[in-house]
Amino acid sequence: MKFTPTLFLKLTTFVLGGLVLIFLLLWLPVQLNQLTASYLEDIARYYPIPVLVGIYLSAIPFFIALFNAYRLVHYIEQQQAFSEAAVKALTRIKHCALFIICLYVIGVIWLGLLGVLFKTVAVFAITIVFVTLVLIFFASVLQELLRHALAIKAENELTI
């Protein structure tokens, strides 16, 4: 088997998906319980539940976007990088990223209004929002480049 950059990107998507799954299922619930164990207020005892629900809800579009990134790498590998399917995959990635941003912004505002927004959770949420924003801008630039390339390709096919 020849080691190519596309194979590396495919392996990276699997490793990233596995690490996020381990983070979601094993590490995060334990850390949230330890964070709230020292608080005696009623609201802090129920704090992990809405945080976990929000993070698990954002995992759904994350894995959808990760699958579309895998498909995009597959299109590149099959010499179909400049296709409408690649543009649609980038569109789905952008929509998933936008949904993740909305979830985290709503969650931070909601926890802030309840008065139970811990600094570590706020920093975590803000980091995810900014990383996801960068992803949206990157996907938008790639999408416009692919659309432009598709237009040039269609124009060249008409002239021949």
In short:
With 160 residues, the chain is mainly α.
Report on the architecture of this protein.
It comes from Amphibacillus marinus. The chain crosses the membrane at residues 7-27, 47-70, 96-116, 122-142. Keywords: Membrane, Transmembrane, Transmembrane helix. This protein has 160 residues and is mainly α. The chain has one domain. The protein has helices at 5-37, 42-45, 48-77, 84-114, 119-159. It starts with a helix and ends with a helix.
Quaternary form:
single chain
Helix fraction?
A: over 70%
Uncertain residue ranges: none
Q: What order do the SSEs take from the amino end to the carboxyl end, as H and E?
A: HHHHH
Protein name: DUF2975 domain-containing protein
InterPro entries: DUF2975
Transmembrane segments: 7-27, 47-70, 96-116, 122-142
Organism: Amphibacillus marinus
Topology:
Blueprint: H1 5-37, H2 42-45, H3 48-77, H4 84-114, H5 119-159
Helix pairs in contact: 1-3, 3-4, 4-5
For this entry, give a set of tags.
mainly alpha; 5 helices; elongated; 160 residues
